UniProtKB/TrEMBL annotation:
<keyword id="KW-0249">Electron transport</keyword>
<comment type="similarity">
    <text>Belongs to the cytochrome b561 family.</text>
</comment>
<dbReference type="InterPro" id="IPR052168">
    <property type="entry name" value="Cytochrome_b561_oxidase"/>
</dbReference>
<feature type="transmembrane region" description="Helical">
    <location>
        <begin position="155"/>
        <end position="174"/>
    </location>
</feature>
<keyword id="KW-0472">Membrane</keyword>
<protein>
    <submittedName>
        <fullName>Cytochrome b561</fullName>
    </submittedName>
</protein>
<keyword id="KW-0812">Transmembrane</keyword>
<keyword id="KW-1003">Cell membrane</keyword>
<keyword id="KW-0813">Transport</keyword>
<keyword id="KW-1133">Transmembrane helix</keyword>
<feature type="domain" description="Cytochrome b561 bacterial/Ni-hydrogenase">
    <location>
        <begin position="8"/>
        <end position="184"/>
    </location>
</feature>
<keyword id="KW-0408">Iron</keyword>
<dbReference type="Pfam" id="PF01292">
    <property type="entry name" value="Ni_hydr_CYTB"/>
</dbReference>
<keyword id="KW-0479">Metal-binding</keyword>
<feature type="transmembrane region" description="Helical">
    <location>
        <begin position="86"/>
        <end position="113"/>
    </location>
</feature>
<keyword id="KW-0349">Heme</keyword>
<feature type="transmembrane region" description="Helical">
    <location>
        <begin position="12"/>
        <end position="31"/>
    </location>
</feature>
Length: 186
């Protein structure tokens, strides 16, 4: 049973949550395999709708996450639910990791593109051909940022699946209103 008088998140928090979830999932599905190798072989990313859409969704995830962080600081109190201490601790850990990954995955994509000299191509024809501030940074040579990006993308999707499974468990087994608190309103 909910402890706070609010039993649901505010509409803007719910909208941010579901838009971000949809963008992360779509970006993962559209994530081109072996993109870096294809770029080295001369592929122009603007010729591939999946690459353009993937990169555009990545920028959207980053912007939505920044806006969400601002909203978290300003929004009304969120609902709070009674749960076992271990459950609360795991919930906080998973949420914290998801927030971190929603920032880190797009950042590692930019590091990969900039350090390898690939353009950023977005819907609407927007293109950034060179990112010397990344290519010349101390971070550029520290890792294979494309590999890091791919690994973090896999982790965020798996963690989001765990997050969704926990919400379904709360709904079907515990019947405590956790899923309803974030569910879109019809």
């Amino acid at each position: 049973m909910a402890v706070s008088p609010r039993s649901v998140y505010d509409p803007l928090s719910r909208a941010f949550h579901w838009l971000t979830a949809a963008a992360v999932l779509a970006a993962f599905v559209l994530g081109p395999e072996h993109f870096g190798r294809q770029m080295h072989d001369g592929l122009d990313p603007a010729t591939r709708w999946d690459i353009v859409t993937h990169e555009s969704l990545g920028v959207l995830v980053f912007v939505l996450t920044l806006l969400r962080l601002v909203w978290v600081a300003l929004r009304p109190a969120r609902p709070r639910f009674e749960m076992a201490g271990w459950m609360s601790a795991v919930s906080h850990l998973v949420h914290g990791l998801l927030w971190l990954l929603m920032l880190a995955v797009p950042v590692t994509a930019m590091l990969a593109l900039g350090s390898e000299g690939h353009p950023l191509t977005l819907l609407g024809g927007l293109r950034v051909n060179e990112m010397p501030f990344i290519a010349q940074s101390a971070l550029a040579p520290m890792a294979d940022w494309g590999e890091v990006h791919g690994l973090l993308g896999d982790i965020i999707l798996n963690l989001a699946g765990l997050h969704a499974a926990a919400a379904i468990y709360h709904h079907l087994v515990l019947k405590d209103g956790v899923l309803r608190a974030m569910a879109p309103r019809g």
